[in-house]
Specification:
By secondary structure, the protein is mainly beta. Helix content is 15%, strand content 39%. It contains seven helices and 20 strands. The chain has two domains: 234 residues, Jelly Rolls, CATH 2.60.120; 77 residues, Jelly Rolls, CATH 2.60.120.10. It starts with 13 loop residues before the first strand and ends with a strand. A hairpin with a 4-residue loop joins strand 15 and strand 16.
Length: 323
Amino acid sequence: MASMKLYPLQFEPILKERIWGGTKLKTYLNKPITSDITGESWEISTVENDVSIVANGIFKGKSLNELINEFPEAVLGTKVYAQFGKQFPLLFKYLDAREDLSIQLHPNDELAKKRHNSFGKTEMWYVMQADTDARLIVGFKEKSSPEEYIQNLNNKTLLSILDTKKVNPGDVFMLNTGTIHALGAGIVIAEIQQTSDITYRVYDFDRVDANGNKRELHIDLALEALNYEKIEAQRLYSKNQNTSNEVINCKYFTTNFIPLDGNTKIHKNKKSFTVYMCVDGDFQLTGDGESYAYKKGDTVLIPAALTDFQLSGKASILEIYIS
């Protein structure tokens, strides 16, 4: 059977310059950046014009879309293929914020479909590294309203009604659609999100690019998409060694945290692919008589056809799949 040729897949990072980016993707995560304002490394993507290319093994040079076309159920899983067809439903990134990101939000599935023919953008952040006193913005301090929000936006006092949180490595934030948010300066995160590149930017600190231009804002689009309720975005989770500790379980993805110190056996049911993001340390994955090594900053896609393997080493790992 052709799908038996499938193996753990790594991809060439898709590197993105951003006005707020820096150099930590290279110094901290060993990404091959060539610019001092690299803000994002897209690890696994099928966003149009940004489709991941396999970096290892016999499928090296093939795109993820080509593999999904050839082995849809074996790559995606029976349940994921039944739900999404040959679309890969998630996008995986590392971000380095040298400066504050713009204050922004993302539309839900219904609005994104109507306006952009796209998925919405539910996402989560795992903080990998944070400078002293680094903070992020997530949600309103108290329940707000379109009128209060617009008044503060016009008066350039929007920050006064937004909730800021000091962050530490290991912190997790769940950003449901409509949540106003901004990653603060001095933070490196792993980001897991729906396959979507729809962002409504509402305030950008009046920054200009190298040519003196301000970035586009999406004030009107954001009004209907915003969630004005007070929310609690931070998620607390267990850290039991050598096992999968549930961090996020939503309809778009499940994320577990594995504090590996030794080894653990993994069994999957062919319903979904699994992705491992190594957020610290290094580990080996052994299965079908083959062994693969991963280090901090590596992301690997385990096709759904691979059901039994072992992880060993000393590492902190995010385990993501669709349940």
